[in-house]
Amino acid sequence: MAKVKITQIKSVIDRPKKQKATIAALGLKRMHQTVERENTPVVMGMVKAVSHLVKVEEA
To answer: Cys bridge to 2: 35, 38, 39, 54, which one at CB 3.0-4.6 A?
Structure first.
C-alpha cells in the first residue's frame, strides 16, 4: 500500500478529548512532528476526524 506523511500543524490545547486521543493514536506528540503511516481506510478516517489539525502528503 501507499504511505502518507501526517504532520501536526495546530495544537491540541483546548480540543475535545476525542481529538487529543486521535492525534495520539496517529503517533503525533508535538507540533510540526511528522509520522509516516500506511494509507488505509482506518488511518484516513482518523485523519478526516482531525483534518483541521494536521497536514497530509503522499509519501
So the answer is: 39
Q: Work out how many domains the chain is built from and give that number.
A: 1
pLDDT at 1: 79
- Which residue range forms the structural domain that includes residue 8? 3-58
Other Cβ atoms less than 10 A from the Cβ of 37: the count is: 19
Q: CATH number, domain at 30?
A: 3.30.1390.20
Separation of alpha carbons 40 and 20, rounded Å: 20
Instruction: Let me know the angle formed at the C-alpha of 26 by 24 and 31, rounded to the nearest 5 degrees.
Output: 65
Instruction: Tell me the average pLDDT across 31-41.
Output: 97
Cα gap 38→44, rounded to integer Å? 9
